[in-house]
Design a protein that fits this description.
Blueprint lengths: L1 H13 L18 E5 L14 H7 L3 E6 L9 H10 L20 E3 L2 E3 L3 H9 L9 H8 L4 E4 L1 H7 L5 E2 L1 E3 L15 E5 L2 H4 L11 H21 L5 E5 L10 E7 L5 E4 L8 E3 H11 L14 E3 L5 H45 L4 H27 L11 H20 L10 H19 L25 H23 L4 H20 L7 H19 L5 H23 L8 H10 L3 H18 L1 H19 L8 H8 L2 H19 L5 H38 L1
């Protein structure tokens, strides 16, 4: 419980600094809220010539990129509209589709309309993995006494209440009677010109000329809407979906505003980025209507100084380009990373098992050690590359990979540059320490290096926007525990075992605070998994036996730490909470089961959905056992020899293994946690083992020489 207390006390201390900005303020409800959805609209579509109406509107609006990911890899327009309706990720069919159908027109009902099959759509989403309550937006407006209107088929899906009904419906915005706009509290408009410019299959591309013509047509229609609106109207323009197999970030602007400024929300904590579910909360806030509990998005608010529309559009275009490149590079990167690790294991096994002679053996072991250190430094190098503007290069993918390789070489050069290179674990400790410090600093200052990293998170994929991603947590926790082991080794060799144990606990507690604190790591499952790794490392350093009671106590301590962090977060204003506070609220409201079930399902599916990491994990475990722990040609494994020279190494590897295996069970990314942890730990173990063998062989050679002289 020492780690638990050491973590909980700082967390409670940090709680004294809670902020209260933009807590639950709602705008003046006078005037209609008009949501204009343009499926597929991106910021690089807009300029003063092709989109003069939107450009002028942006000059008095809050501006952002819109992340539109819903249930499947590509957000079809109907899925986007249903997500706006629910304020939670929703879809028409609940899975991936090769074809994005156009929204079906609703059935007329008096002056309004009813969406056909809405009850089935609602039931399908209620029983889906996000338990989305389609119809939440329209129902909230109706319960507040307001009326709803939809113009266009897609708009009806968004504005319908839980019965699938909208009060007024027109097939197109041009058909709306001028007086009608002022009579409703919420109007949703479907401007589908960009969407209709593409083939229905949605996988083909169109020429820039054809797309520009579609944008001009959409802009003219939006201009007509803006002209018809009363002066008191609040307008939101959003690119609510993708239109092709190309995933992108899309346009979001909300007016009126005094001057253009970037928007953000508690969902992303990123300047100039909001999510599609935030659109629901933002529209309700503008209407003066409280958002239902089922709405997971948060109303946006301006952040930073005013900007010019041209500068904002360029910035959003750059951000979308970097996100697209990162997204499409992830799969090739992981395949290359897996292949590199497998080649490292094969080369390591060969170097360890072959009976090389004399100087040749020393050179092969030294080369194997260097390559192993390169493998362990790989995750850190993928972060450091974001210090450079690689996405602006004429060949961004090549530039990114070249920069990753360059940073990797620099890290290993630094690790082997001094007298410490002769030590068994010092070079590995340096790489682990650099990884630990970089990851901690990054997450405490906004996680900019994780952003668009191939081992971080991506705004298009929208799995996470702040704090530690699962892969980043796995790398960070492993680096912390191996750094602690390296420092403990330094102290133990100087006769300070008690000090070594204290260093492990203090460093681990500090790292746990970084992991658990909502404004930094905000890691739920990782916090639970980290405590056992820290305590087990300390126990092994202390020379204590590990009992089942220790493991249970560690898990309980991890639960205490994350519960404390979550309920501290929950006590903050809703607009300032992270997902930790939201989960605490779901626990209190009895809604946590859906989230936990979804995450458990994701964990189980991760083994099949991440074949690269699954293969990597299995290969690392086999190599660890067959090549380092239980070889067939030696009485003692190479790793056992390394433990003899650096006993603390066993502690760091044992703690990292425990955290990664528990992380596999409690994190929704499942296999990615041990996959990345082992991809760092095993190469560092190999580096220590090869150095130990070199020292061992040299000592054996010197002994034989002395015997010969005698």
């Amino acid at each position: 419980m020492l780690v638990s207390l050491a973590v909980v006390v700082p967390l409670l201390g940090c709680a004294l600094g809670f902020g209260t900005a933009h807590a639950g303020a709602r705008e003046d409800p006078d005037g209609p809220v008009v949501v204009v959805g343009v499926p597929g609209l991106r910021w690089d579509d807009l300029d003063p010539r092709d989109a003069p109406n939107l450009w002028r509107l942006a000059g008095r609006a809050g501006l952002a990129n819109l992340s539109t990911y819903t249930v499947s890899g590509v957000t079809c327009p109907v899925d986007g509209w249903l997500t706006v309706s629910a304020g939670q990720r929703a879809s028409l069919y609940g899975g991936e589709r090769a074809v994005c159908d156009l929204p079906a027109p609703p059935s007329p009902s008096g002056s309004g309309a009813i969406v056909p099959g809405f009850a089935q759509i609602r039931a399908r989403n209620l029983h889906g993995k996000y338990a989305a309550r389609v119809g939440s937006l329209g129902t909230a407006i109706h319960r507040s006494g307001g009326l709803t209107m939809a113009a266009g088929p897609g708009a009806a899906f968004a504005a319908a209440d839980d019965q699938g009904r909208v009060d007024f419906y027109s097939p197109a915005p041009e058909a709306v009677p001028p007086a009608r706009w002022a009579s409703v509290r919420l109007a949703v408009v479907d401007v589908d010109d960009v969407q209709r410019a593409y083939p229905r299959a949605g996988s083909a591309t169109i020429s820039r000329t054809r797309r520009a013509a579609a944008v001009r047509q959409a802009d003219r229609r939006i201009g007509g809407v803006l002209t018809a609106l009363p002066a008191s109207a609040k307008v939101v323009v959003a690119g609510v979906s993708d239109t092709t197999r190309r995933n992108s970030l899309h346009v979001l602007m909300t007016a009126p505003g005094l001057r253009p400024r970037y928007l953000t929300s508690a969902s992303t904590r990123r300047q100039g980025l909001v999510t599609l579910t935030d659109l629901t909360a933002g529209a309700l806030s503008a209407a003066g209507v409280p958002a239902p509990a089922a709405v997971v998005g948060r109303a946006w608010h301006p952040e930073g100084e005013p900007v010019t529309v041209a500068a904002a559009a360029d910035s959003f275009g750059d951000a979308n380009r970097a996100a697209e490149i990162s997204q499409h590079t992830m799969t090739p990167f992981w395949i290359a990373f897996m292949a590199g690790q497998l080649l490292l294991y094969a080369a390591g096994a060969l170097a360890l098992r072959r009976n090389w002679q004399g100087g040749r053996r020393r050179r092969i072991l030294a080369a194997t050690r260097t390559v192993a250190l390169c493998g362990a430094a790989g995750p850190l190098a993928t972060y450091l590359v974001n210090l450079l503007p690689w996405s602006r290069s004429p060949h961004p993918v090549t530039t990114m990979f070249a920069c990753v390789a360059g940073f990797d070489i620099l890290l290993v050069t630094a690790a082997l540059a001094g007298r410490w290179r002769r030590d068994v674990i010092a070079p590995g400790t340096i790489i682990a320490a650099l990884t630990m410090v970089t990851f901690a600093t990054d997450v405490m200052t906004g996680a900019r290096l994780q952003w668009d990293s191939v081992t971080g998170y991506n705004p298009i994929i929208a799995g996470r926007f702040y704090g530690f991603a699962n892969i980043a947590f796995a790398a960070y926790a492993t680096a912390v525990l191996l750094t602690a082991a390296g420092l403990a080794h330094l102290l133990v060799t100087r006769g300070h075992r008690r000090g070594a144990v204290i260093v492990v606990l203090v460093l681990g507690a500090a790292a746990e605070v970084v992991t658990a604190w909502p404004d930094w790591g905000a890691k739920f499952g990782g916090t639970i998994a980290f405590v056992p790794g820290i305590v087990l490392t300390a126990l092994i350093v202390a020379g204590r036996r590990i009992s089942p009671a220790h493991v249970v106590g560690c898990l309980a301590a991890g639960v205490v730490v994350i519960a404390t962090s979550a309920f501290i977060d929950y006590s903050r204003p809703p607009a300032d909470r992270t997902h930790l506070g939201e989960f605490a609220g779901q626990v209190l409201n009895g809604q946590a089961a859906t989230v936990m079930t979804r995450k458990a399902g994701a964990m189980l599916r991760s083994v099949g959905h991440s074949p690269e990491l699954t293969v990597l994990t299995v290969a690392a475990l086999l190599f660890l056992w067959l090549a380092l722990i239980r070889p067939t040609r030696w009485r003692a494994g190479a790793l056992e020899l390394a433990y003899g020279r650096a006993p603390a190494l066993r502690a760091g590897l044992g703690g990292a293994f425990a955290t990664s295996m528990i992380g596999f069970l409690v994190e929704d990314s499942g296999i990615s946690v041990p996959g990345i942890a082992l991809a760092i730990a095993v190469p560092l173990a190999l580096a220590a083992a090869t150095r130990t063998l070199a020292i061992h062989r040299r000592a054996a050679g010197a002994s034989l020489a002395e015997d010969g002289d005698g």
